[in-house]
Design brief:
Number of helices: 4
Strand content: 25-35%
Radius of gyration: 16 Å
Structural class: alpha/beta
Length: about 220
């Protein structure tokens, strides 16, 4: 998909490659096709194996590729040779020259691992991430594994001042927002383009979830 001078390729699950003719960025690559070309940067949202996949990082990286990740992913990523790793935490901003990256919170508020509803899949205190990535006048928000959280309110201004704003939002309902919650997040963020994720790689989620998200967004006047 081409949008605002960038090309967005969905890799399945929460994985994307974004290119603008100058720089190429992969986010959370998982079970990537061998045909996907290597990239300049790889962003990892957290250390779970369906987001921080050693074989996919190895496949997409080359000598000098910069891998940006939170501390919980370090032990995995250090197994990849000839890359440069940058650790990042919530609130950090990195100026990588051709790319500017901001780490934002991603966590669950109502997705639990236990029947007593005490242990969440992605606790707030673990510091899991979403990313705001600036490609010139295009801003891309990759929400990571998250529910609809209050911190998203701070992102609502990204589509102003001649910028284009793209939101990549999880929709599977397992570990992350369900379709209806994701559509609510899109309505809050008001992106120029909303794209569903967290489906399509045999982990959780379905194409039907993605299609329903697109339908709900369009009903709310959001391009998806």
């Amino acid at each position: 998909m081409e949008f605002g001078g960038i090309t967005i390729e969905f890799l399945g699950h929460s994985g994307f490659v974004i290119r603008n003719g100058v720089v190429s960025v992969a986010i959370d690559p998982y079970n990537v096709s061998p045909s996907v070309e290597k990239v300049d940067y790889i962003l990892i949202t957290h250390g779970h194996s369906d987001h921080c996949s050693i074989k996919d990082i190895q496949h997409l990286s080359r000598k000098g590729t910069v891998v940006v990740a939170p501390a919980d992913s370090q032990s995995t990523i250090t197994r990849v040779t000839e890359i440069h790793m940058e650790t990042i935490e919530q609130g950090d901003e990195l100026d990588l020259g051709k790319l500017k990256v901001e780490a934002v919170p991603a966590y669950n508020v109502n997705k639990y691992r236990d029947k007593d509803k005490k242990i969440v899949f992605h606790p707030k205190n673990e510091g899991y991430l979403g990313y705001v990535i600036r490609f010139g006048t295009v801003v891309v928000y990759h929400a990571g594994d998250t529910d609809l959280i209050p911190e998203m309110q701070k992102l609502t201004g990204h589509g102003k001042h001649d910028r284009r704003f793209v939101a990549l939002l999880p929709v599977s309902g397992t570990y992350v927002m369900d379709v209806e919650e994701a559509a609510e997040a899109a309505a809050l963020l008001k992106p120029d383009l909303a794209i569903p994720m967290h489906y399509g790689a045999g982990v959780v989620g379905s194409r039907e979830d993605a299609d329903r998200f697109v339908q709900l967004c369009r009903e709310k006047g959001i391009h998806a």
